[in-house]
């Protein structure tokens, strides 16, 4: 009963937040850094319509002559529940489907890389996300997590076929921007890819920074207007990673 009351309260609070967010779309550019070097940009818009929420994103970077370019378009419910997700890989001359998802109630139809469609049975709390890129999908994931009572664990798909993901609100980091101090709320996301990812949201709920070490190599994104604070942001990111490393090492000790 208490859990149900908490969920109802969370839903009502989120409804109020959604009405505020719906008045103005979140549209930002993120500078992409790969192993500490600026290599490209992600541009995205997360907007409420009369019927749903829509995410469009374009992730594009060049590393050592190799271009990685993906686009994503997602349609979500008012509570960010997934309805459709389409991700494409682009080259200079072609567009190839990487992921196509449609959700119908407790079932999802998933097509990867233009192959055969697979049907997945979904639990009550589940979110559709393409691994790695675009980064802005994680903002929608966090909003979905909050809208559903910030559960200790939720499922994301596609995975194997589902991946359990743990999200935690870790704390607040202060960032100086000129004469202002901005409180950035830090979240850890464990399970979308191998390793823990981190997202920092500003008081307006916009993505300020995102970090990932999936595959063993560091990828970070910083919102365009915060790029001048890159060094300070990297110190914040390093401190968060070291804190978790120390906690993991302590837990592993006999």
Walkthrough of the structure:
This protein is an alpha+beta fold. Helices cover 22% and strands 48% of the residues. Strands 8-7-6-5-4-3-2-1-15-14-13-12-11-10-9 form a 15-stranded mixed beta sheet, with helices on both faces. The longest helix is centred in the last third of the chain and has 23 residues, at 230-252. The protein is globular and about 50 Å long. Residues 1-23 have low confidence and may be disordered.
Secondary-structure blueprint:
Elements: H1 2-22, E1 26-34, E2 37-48, E3 53-63, E4 66-76, E5 82-90, E6 95-104, E7 107-112, E8 118-121, E9 126-128, H2 137-147, E10 154-157, E11 163-177, E12 180-190, E13 196-201, E14 207-212, E15 219-223, H3 230-252
Parallel strand pairs: 9-10
Antiparallel strand pairs: 1-2, 1-15, 2-3, 3-4, 4-5, 5-6, 6-7, 7-8, 10-11, 11-12, 12-13, 13-14, 14-15
Poorly predicted regions are: 1-23
Average pLDDT score: 88
Structural class: alpha+beta
Element-by-element helix/strand order: HEEEEEEEEEHEEEEEEH
Main sheet summary: 15 strands, mixed
Number of helices: 3
Proportion of residues in β-strands: over 45%
Q: C-alpha Rg, in Å? A: 18 Å
Euclidean distance between termini CA atoms: 39 Å
Q: Give the total of beta strands.
A: 15
Based on CA inertia axes, which overall geometry fits? Answer: globular
Helical percent range? 10-25%
Order the strands across the largest sheet as they lie in space: 8-7-6-5-4-3-2-1-15-14-13-12-11-10-9
Keywords:
alpha+beta, single chain, disordered N terminus, globular, 15-stranded mixed β-sheet, 254 residues
Give a brief outline of the structure:
This protein has helices spanning 2-22, 137-147, 230-252; strands at residues 26-34, 37-48, 53-63, 66-76, 82-90, 95-104, 107-112, 118-121, 126-128, 154-157, 163-177, 180-190, 196-201, 207-212, 219-223.
């Amino acid at each position: 009963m208490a859990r149900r009351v908490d969920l109802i309260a969370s839903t009502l609070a989120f409804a109020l937040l959604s009405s505020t967010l719906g008045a103005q779309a979140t549209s930002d550019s993120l500078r992409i850094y790969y192993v500490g070097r600026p290599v490209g940009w992600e541009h995205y818009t997360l907007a409420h319509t009369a019927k749903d929420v829509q995410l469009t994103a374009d992730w594009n970077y060049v590393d050592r002559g190799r271009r990685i370019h993906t686009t994503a378009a997602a349609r979500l419910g008012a509570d960010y529940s997934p309805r459709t997700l389409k991700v494409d890989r682009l080259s200079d001359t072609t567009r190839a489907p990487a992921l196509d998802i449609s959700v119908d109630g407790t079932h999802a139809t998933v097509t990867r890389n233009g192959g055969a469609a697979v049907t997945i049975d979904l639990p009550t709390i589940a979110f559709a996300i393409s691994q790695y890129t675009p980064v802005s999908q994680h903002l929608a994931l966090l909003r979905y997590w909050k809208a559903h009572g910030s559960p200790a664990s939720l499922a994301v798909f596609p995975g194997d076929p589902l991946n359990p993901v743990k999200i935690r609100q870790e704390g607040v980091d202060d960032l100086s921007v000129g004469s202002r101090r901005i409180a950035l709320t830090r979240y850890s996301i464990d399970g979308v890819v191998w390793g823990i990812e981190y997202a920092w949201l500003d008081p307006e709920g916009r993505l300020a920074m995102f970090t990932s070490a999936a595959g063993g190599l560091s990828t970070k994104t910083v919102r365009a207007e915060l790029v001048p604070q890159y060094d300070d942001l990297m110190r914040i990111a390093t401190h968060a990673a070291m804190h978790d490393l120390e906690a993991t090492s302590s837990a592993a000790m006999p």
